[in-house]
Fold this sequence. Notes:
Elements: E1 5-10, H1 14-26, E2 31-36, H2 42-51, H3 57-63, H4 66-91, E3 95-98, H5 104-114, E4 118-121, E5 139-142, H6 145-152, E6 160-162, H7 169-172, H8 177-183, E7 191-196, H9 209-213, E8 219-224, H10 229-245, E9 250-254, H11 260-266, E10 269-273, H12 276-284, E11 289-293, H13 300-308, E12 312-314, H14 318-330, H15 339-363
Parallel strand pairs: 1-2, 1-3, 3-4, 4-5, 5-6, 7-8, 7-10, 8-9, 10-11, 11-12
Helix pairs in contact: 1-15, 4-5, 8-11
Amino acid sequence: xxxxxxxxxxxxxxxxxxxxxxxxxxxxxxxxxxxxxxxxxxxxxxxxxxxxxxxxxxxxxxxxxxxxxxxxxxxxxxxxxxxxxxxxxxxxxxxxxxxxxxxxxxxxxxxxxxxxxxxxxxxxxxxxxxxxxxxxxxxxxxxxxxxxxxxxxxxxxxxxxxxxxxxxxxxxxxxxxxxxxxxxxxxxxxxxxxxxxxxxxxxxxxxxxxxxxxxxxxxxxxxxxxxxxxxxxxxxxxxxxxxxxxxxxxxxxxxxxxxxxxxxxxxxxxxxxxxxxxxxxxxxxxxxxxxxxxxxxxxxxxxxxxxxxxxxxxxxxxxxxxxxxxxxxxxxxxxxxxxxxxxxxxxxxxxxxxxxxxxxxxxx
Length: 364
């Protein structure tokens, strides 16, 4: 008996990570077809958050107004409806899963026409952009109760279910930290920090680097530069200088790698931009998170999540962040206070894929 087909609609950045996590939960029982399109203005958006993350709240708020949303829905319907309909005709899925708001209006029209069950994964854990919510999907899968309340301010009559966050399986695997460090060529005993700048790399997280590399305590700092080649070259040049000066601290520049989960496992603390995938993938490795920057508007709620669930630190003021890091360097055992809640959040998010499988089974 052939497997039923499920179509997952996604694009780059964190949306693709969500789609891959959804695929992980379903591919044993279903045939998965991925619809992937690059979203226009994506490169401009990346440049904005790399260099001016605080300014992103301006277009975010403007595009969230009702008049703007109506216009965007018309534009996205015009751009994607034909392509999506062709994809649907080719693969004839028994169920549709969406991870990006650009496709919402087209998929809602397709749902009306074909009566195909439609599940929408809301791609923001708290400060949700309204385009990422579907008023007519069988269900919108949302992170927690706070997410539901936020979404209801836009679409009070839509269907919602709590799911936790969708995290790819490799981040959730069990591991031995010393064995991972040895495999990666790291010192197995040094206090280890991972500065994770996201898949595209953001220069804003570099503001904490001097405090770490000038530490009097022997540490190792991994800087994950993503696809930012300029950033990688800068860190590599700085690393060469440190090698010549014979400092006892190690600085490891890291280009984009599909094995970033291993570096999270190796770290005692991950420092980075508070994107939801970066945050919850870190938590899945049972490592606390230090938010040093975020995309204003879109990621405001992520900072609240870190505070409310006791998942780590939030400090975007450079002087206060440096002071906080010095305290951590002096007393690394302070990181232990997050352990219990980090593990609790990991377990909460592990239900997401199980819930999705159950929903898909029921709807198909």
